[in-house]
Design goal:
Number of strands: 15
Strand content: 15-25%
Helix content: 40-55%
CATH superfamily of the largest domain: Dihydropteroate synthase-like
CATH architecture of the largest domain: Alpha-Beta Barrel
Radius of gyration: 23 Å
Number of helices: 12
CATH class of the largest domain: Alpha Beta
Largest sheet: 8 strands, parallel
Oligomer: single chain
Shape: elongated
Structural class: alpha/beta
Length: 358
């Protein structure tokens, strides 16, 4: 049983982060934020697959101004991602950003930071202190060296230094992230940081890679941390459509039995015993399942060795044969069908089960 570390709870819009709040799954848009129509459309797609918080880049005044129009059309909290220019942070909050992500040390000094903090207090907006391995201050790199699994000190000290800058301004509605592109550095850094602070932690591996490499690296790092009770919200960073980040995120939480959303699908890897065309069938079933919210268990199995047993354990399942397939429901044989009829009948029954549970 996972025992989660208790951290201070903050609110990003209506979503709690830390404390007893559920671990939140988030992503970031890759549209031009100033293109309101495209950004809203992407956020709507992310909402459908379970995104609970969305972050947008704010590189210019046009992007900051678009936040108001975006917020009016979406249903999840919106975070503005700011670098270097404190005016953009203030403008983003004035236009309705429900949280901001900054590195306080690169905003131009105490006076500029004070302007941002005053706006955050006025608009009741929490701040994420986000430090990456590539953005550590030179003096800390000289003192501690580049962060490694054996010595992540520069990453941790950078984050805590920037947190102190906010605390000195009387601001404590904070969450922290210290991301590295290295899996082991990420794990070591967050382990140590978790012992040094009670602020909620946003965990993640930055610049993790494409679908396969990024999923593996993020799952290893975040899986270890979440299993140890570390982490209050996270993003799976992939060089991919952000919808894939959300899908991987929810599967990670499900695999650790932390949270569930939508059906669980188990499917066999196939072997020489498989006599039906299972790959496209499994892909289509998975695509449909990702639009569903009920927590049914679905099995898609290719042969008669493990297929019937696994299918019987599921709420609904397929076990393939030679040109035919059996559909099981609640452990009982429901229908035996020719291969060409198997998928449409199965999908129709899935949708019926979704309505019954809804």
């Amino acid at each position: 049983m996972i025992e989660r570390k208790k951290t201070k709870e903050i609110k990003v819009g209506q979503v709690g982060i830390g404390g007893d709040a559920p671990i939140a799954v988030q992503s970031m848009t890759n549209t031009d934020t100033a293109d309101v129509e495209a950004t809203v459309a992407q956020i709507h797609r992310l909402e459908k697959v379970g995104c609970e918080i969305i972050r947008v880049a704010v590189p210019d005044p046009e992007a900051a101004g678009a936040i108001k129009l975006i917020r009016e059309q979406i249903n999840i909290p919106l975070i503005a991602d700011i670098h270097f220019d404190p005016r953009l942070a203030v403008a983003a909050m004035e236009h309705g950003a429900q949280a901001i992500r900054i590195n306080p040390g690169n905003l131009g000094g105490p006076e500029m930071l004070a302007r941002v903090v005053d706006a955050a207090k006025l608009h009741r907006v929490p701040i994420r202190v986000g430090v990456n391995s590539g953005s550590i201050e030179k003096d800390l790199l000289q003192k501690f060296g580049y962060p490694t699994p054996e010595k992540p000190d520069s990453l941790i000290n950078s984050a805590l230094r920037n947190v102190r800058l906010l605390e000195e301004q009387g601001f404590e509605e904070i969450k922290i992230s210290i991301k590295s592109s290295d899996t082991l550095t990420t794990i070591a850094g967050y382990r140590e940081l978790s012992q040094k602070t009670d602020y909620p932690l946003h965990i993640g591996v930055t610049e993790a890679g494409g679908l396969i490499a990024g999923t593996v690296k993020s799952s290893v790092a975040l899986g270890n941390l979440l299993f140890e009770g570390i982490g209050d919200t996270f993003r799976i960073s992939l060089t991919r459509d952000p919808e894939e980040e959300i899908k991987v995120g929810w599967e990670l939480l499900r695999s650790l039995r932390i949270r569930e959303r939508g059906p669980e699908m188990i499917s066999c890897p196939t072997c020489g015993r498989t006599k039906i065309d299972l790959f496209p069938m499994a892909e289509e079933i998975e695509r449909v399942l990702q639009t569903m919210k009920s927590t049914i268990k679905v099995a898609v199995m290719g042969c008669v060795v493990n297929g019937p047993g696994e299918a019987r354990e599921a709420d609904i399942g397929i076990a393939g044969g030679v040109g035919v397939g059996i559909i099981f429901k609640k452990g009982e044989v429901w229908k035996k069908l020719p291969e060409e009829e198997l998928l449409p009948v199965f999908l129709e029954e899935l949708k019926k089960m979704e309505k019954e549970q809804g």
